[in-house]
Structure to design on (689 residues):
C-alpha cells in the first residue's frame, strides 16, 4: 500500500498514518513544517511503515498542483491512496468583516483542495484503481452563523468529491468524503470542548482508514453524526433560526 | 496547542475533584511557548501523563497542567543496541506494540500498561521483577528536560548526576520530561511461563518469596486482606519467567470491558468486598499450578477491565502503598493486616511483594529492600482517613515509607521521615513547577 498524505501533520492525518504504518504501508508525508514531518516520519517507520518519506509543500497554494502531485507519486514509486487532510478553520467574525480573510478560508479549504482532488482523480482514473479520501466536515451540512464560511468551503468540497465518486461509479477507483463532528484537535483549541459529542482524532482516523478501503462516498465520523445532521438539515428555518447552535 | 484551557482532570483515585487548566501540546516545539505562557500567567506548572497515579502528585489545581499524552512519538528504536528513544507521552501500551514483535521487552513495567514514559520515570516505577531489575530509573540512559525558562536540557547520569537523579522519581517537579532514552531487554516470546501457588498465611508468603526470588524473574502476591486469625495474610503467590519459545505477537491487548460510569457507592461495602476476596481466593486455588499464559494477561490483569476505578463510585478511593525494611517486615506487615481486617474496611486489590536491594539513581525513589504492601480503600471519609493514619504509625515505627504515586493524603511529617533525601532533592525543584502533593508534603 502506497499512501500520499496531504497535510500529514494534522491530528487526524497523524492518527490515520499510524494505522497505515501498522499495516506496513509506504507513506509520503506532505506539509510545510520540515521538522515536524521528520518527527512524524521517524515515528511511523518505528511503528512498522515500510517507508516514510517527506515532501515540503504549501498545499493551500493551488498553483502547479498537477506537477507537484506527479512529483509526489514519483517520489513514492506509485500511489494507491491519497488522503487530503489539511484545512483551516479561520475566524468567522473576522472573515465577515475582512473579505481577504474569507477568501483565504475559501482558497485553502476549497480552491486548493479541489485542485488536489481533481489531479488525484485523473491519476487514479488512468491507473484504474486507487482511492481519494478527503476530510470534510459536518459544518458543510447546513450553514450556521458561527462558521458558515468554513462550512461553505466544506460543502463545496462535498459536492466535488461526491461528483468524482459518481464519475468513478462502476470503474475501479474510489472517492470518499469523511465528515468529522467536533474533534479534539489543535484546530478546535480554545473552544469549550467538554461534553460527549467531542471525538478523539483516533476515532475519526479509524473511520478515515476503513473508508479508504470500502464503503460509500460519504461517511460521518463518528457515525452517529449522520442522524444528528439529518435532523439539523431538516429543521424548518423558522425553528433553526431561533436556535443557538 | 499552546494555551491553558479548563479541562476535566481526575487522578486514578478520584478523591480530589478540583477544576484544572491544561494545555495539550501535539509537538515538542510547542513546549517553550507553553512554559513561558505559564510563567506569564503566573501559573506553576506540572506535566502529566495518563493519570494512572492514584493521589495528587499529578494534580495542580492552582496552576497549570501540561498534558503530555499528545507527545507520543517514537524518536528511534535500535533493536541491536537495545535502545529506544521516545517522547515522554508515549504509553507503554503503544511501545510494547512496537518492541515485543521485534524481540524486546520493557526492563520494568508497572501493573498497568496505560502509563506514559514520562510518568513512569517521574514516579520511578517498579514491577514484579524489582528483586532482579530494580526500578525503571536504572534503565534510563538519557532524558530531555524542559525547564520553566523555556530551555531544554539533555541529561545523563554522567553529565548531570544531581539533576538526573532528582528527575528520576522526581514527581514532575524538576521540569517537564520531553523524551526518554531507555535500554530494553531481549525477549524471545510473548508468552509467560507462570505458576500460581495458594498460601494460607503470612509466614508461608515469606518462605515462598525467599525460595522464589532467585529462580524467578517475576514474583507478586495477591492477598485477602479481610481474612482473620490463622488465615491472616492468606493469598495467591504468582511467579514466572519469560517462556523461551512461543509467538512473538502480543495480540491486541486484554481489555475486554470498560466501566461506562461510576457505580453507586453502596456497591463497595465490607460484605461485597469480603465476598469478592473469598471468591477470588477459592478461584485461585482451583487454578493453582503451572501454566503458559499470554504476556499481557500475566503483567496486566487489571487492564482487562478498562477504567475499573469507576467501581469505587463518585467519591473515589485511596490507595495505600508502604514498604518496610527486612528486619521488621514480618511483624509490621502482620500488624497492618490485623489493623485492616479488624477495621472491616477491605480492599479488592491487596498486593504483597518483596523488594530487592538493587538501588535506583532516583533521589526520591520509593522502593527499598523489604516488603511492600499495596491496598485500595473506598473513600468513606473520616473512617478511611483514620484507618490510614493508624497504618501510617505502623510504617513510621518500622522505619518505612509510603509511595507518592499512590498517595492522596500523607502528612508532611510522614513524607519527610520516609524520604530523608527530600531536602537535597528540593534544591533541584524548578521554581516554575509544583503540584498539589508537593505543596502538602514540603510545608513545615
Ligand atoms: C492498575 C494500576 C497498577 C499500577 N501498578 C504499579 C506498579 O506495579 N508499580 C508502580 O510503580 N506503579 C504502579 N502503578 C502506578 C503507576 O505506574 C504510576 O502512577 C505511573 O507513574 C503513572 O504514569 P502516568 O503516565 O499515568 O503518569 P501520571 O499519573 O499522569 O503522572 C505521574 C507523575 O509523573 C509526573 N509526570 C508525568 N509525565 C511527566 C513528564 N513528561 N515530565 C515530568 N513529569 C511527568 C506527574 O507530574 C506526576 O507527578 C499502577 C497504577 C495503576 C492504575
Amino acid at each position: 500500500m502506497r499512501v500520499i498524505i496531504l497535510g500529514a501533520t494534522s491530528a487526524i492525518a497523524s492518527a490515520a498514518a499510524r494505522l497505515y504504518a501498522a499495516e506496513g504501508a509506504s507513506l509520503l508525508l506532505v506539509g510545510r513544517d520540515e521538522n515536524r514531518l521528520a518527527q512524524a516520519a521517524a515515528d511511523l517507520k518505528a511503528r512498522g511503515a515500510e517507508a516514510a518519506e517527506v515532501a515540503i509543500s504549501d498545499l493551500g497554494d493551488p498553483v502547479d498542483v498537477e506537477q507537484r502531485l506527479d512529483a509526489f507519486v514519483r517520489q513514492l514509486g506509485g500511489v494507491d491512496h491519497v488522503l487530503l487532510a489539511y484545512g483551516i478553520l479561520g475566524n468567522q467574525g473576522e472573515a465577515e468583516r475582512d473579505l481577504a480573510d474569507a477568501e483565504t478560508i475559501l482558497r485553502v479549504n476549497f480552491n486548493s483542495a479541489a485542485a488536489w482532488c481533481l489531479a488525484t482523480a485523473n491519476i487514479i482514473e488512468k491507473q484504474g484503481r486507487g482511492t481519494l479520501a478527503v476530510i470534510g466536515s459536518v459544518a458543510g451540512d447546513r450553514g450556521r452563523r458561527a462558521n458558515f464560511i468554513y462550512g461553505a468551503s466544506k460543502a463545496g468540497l462535498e459536492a466535488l468529491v461526491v461528483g468524482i465518486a459518481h464519475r468513478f461509479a462502476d470503474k475501479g477507483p474510489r472517492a470518499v468524503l469523511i465528515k468529522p463532528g467536533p474533534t479534539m484537535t489543535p484546530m478546535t483549541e480554545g473552544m469549550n470542548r467538554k461534553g460527549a459529542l467531542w471525538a478523539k482524532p483516533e476515532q475519526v482516523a479509524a473511520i478515515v482508514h476503513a473508508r479508504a478501503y470500502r464503503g460509500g462516498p460519504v461517511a460521518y465520523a463518528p457515525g452517529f453524526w449522520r442522524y444528528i445532521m439529518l435532523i439539523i438539515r431538516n429543521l424548518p428555518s423558522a425553528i433553526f433560526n431561533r436556535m443557538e447552535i | 496547542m499552546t494555551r491553558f484551557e479548563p479541562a476535566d482532570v481526575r487522578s486514578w483515585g478520584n478523591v480530589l475533584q478540583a477544576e484544572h487548566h491544561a494545555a495539550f501540546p501535539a509537538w515538542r516545539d510547542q513546549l517553550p511557548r507553553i512554559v513561558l505562557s505559564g510563567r506569564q500567567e503566573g501559573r506553576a506548572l506540572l506535566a502529566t501523563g495518563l493519570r494512572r497515579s492514584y493521589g495528587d502528585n499529578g494534580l495542580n489545581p492552582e496552576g497549570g497542567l501540561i498534558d503530555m499524552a499528545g507527545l507520543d512519538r517514537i524518536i528511534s528504536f535500535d533493536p541491536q543496541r537495545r535502545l529506544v528513544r521516545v517522547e515522554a507521552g508515549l504509553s507503554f501500551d503503544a511501545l510494547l506494540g512496537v518492541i515485543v514483535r521485534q524481540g524486546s521487552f520493557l526492563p520494568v513495567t508497572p501493573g498497568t500498561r496505560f502509563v506514559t514514559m514520562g510518568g513512569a520515570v517521574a514516579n520511578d516505577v517498579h514491577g514484579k521483577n524489582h528483586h532482579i531489575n530494580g526500578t525503571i530509573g536504572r534503565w534510563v540512559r538519557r532524558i530531555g528536560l524542559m525547564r520553566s525558562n523555556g530551555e531544554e536540557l539533555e541529561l545523563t547520569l554522567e553529565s548531570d548526576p544531581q539533576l538526573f537523579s532528582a528527575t528520576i522519581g522526581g514527581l514532575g517537579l524538576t521540569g517537564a520530561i520531553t523524551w526518554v532514552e531507555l535500554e530494553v531487554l531481549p525477549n524471545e516470546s510473548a508468552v509467560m511461563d507462570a505458576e500460581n501457588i495458594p498460601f494460607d498465611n503470612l509466614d508461608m508468603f515469606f518462605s515462598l518469596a525467599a525460595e522464589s526470588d532467585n529462580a524467578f524473574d517475576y514474583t507478586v502476591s495477591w492477598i485477602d486482606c479481610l481474612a482473620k486469625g490463622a488465615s491472616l495474610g492468606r493469598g495467591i503467590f504468582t511467579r514466572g519467567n519469560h517462556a523461551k519459545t512461543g509467538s512473538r505477537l502480543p495480540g491486541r491487548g486484554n481489555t475486554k470491558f470498560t466501566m461506562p460510569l461510576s457505580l453507586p457507592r453502596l456497591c463497595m461495602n465490607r460484605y461485597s468486598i469480603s465476598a469478592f476476596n473469598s471468591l477470588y481466593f477459592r478461584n485461585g486455588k482451583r487454578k493453582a499450578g503451572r501454566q503458559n499464559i499470554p504476556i499481557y494477561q500475566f503483567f496486566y490483569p487489571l487492564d482487562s477491565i478498562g477504567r475499573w476505578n469507576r467501581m469505587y463510585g463518585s467519591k473515589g478511593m485511596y490507595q495505600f502503598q508502604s514498604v518496610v525494611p527486612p528486619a521488621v517486615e514480618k511483624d509490621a506487615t502482620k500488624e497492618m493486616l490485623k489493623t485492616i481486617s479488624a477495621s472491616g474496611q477491605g480492599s479488592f486489590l491487596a498486593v504483597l511483594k518483596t523488594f530487592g536491594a538493587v538501588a535506583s539513581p532516583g533521589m526520591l525513589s520509593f522502593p527499598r529492600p523489604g516488603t511492600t504492601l499495596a491496598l485500595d480503600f473506598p473513600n468513606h471519609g473520616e473512617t478511611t482517613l483514620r484507618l490510614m493514619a493508624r497504618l501510617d504509625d505502623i510504617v513510621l515505627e518500622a522505619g518505612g515509607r509510603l509511595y507518592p504515586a499512590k498517595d492522596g493524603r500523607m502528612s508532611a511529617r510522614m513524607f519527610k521521615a520516609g524520604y530523608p533525601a527530600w531536602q537535597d532533592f528540593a534544591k533541584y525543584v524548578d521554581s516554575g513547577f509544583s503540584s498539589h502533593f508537593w505543596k502538602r508534603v514540603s510545608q513545615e
Observations:
- Chain B has 13 helices and 21 strands.
- The pocket of flavin-adenine dinucleotide is lined by residues B 12, 46-53, 57-58, 68, 88, 110-112, 115-116, 118-120, 122-123, 125-127, 171-172, 176-177, 302, 405, 435 (CB under 6 Å).
- Chain B has a mean pLDDT of 92.
- The first strand of chain B starts at residue 5 and ends at 7.
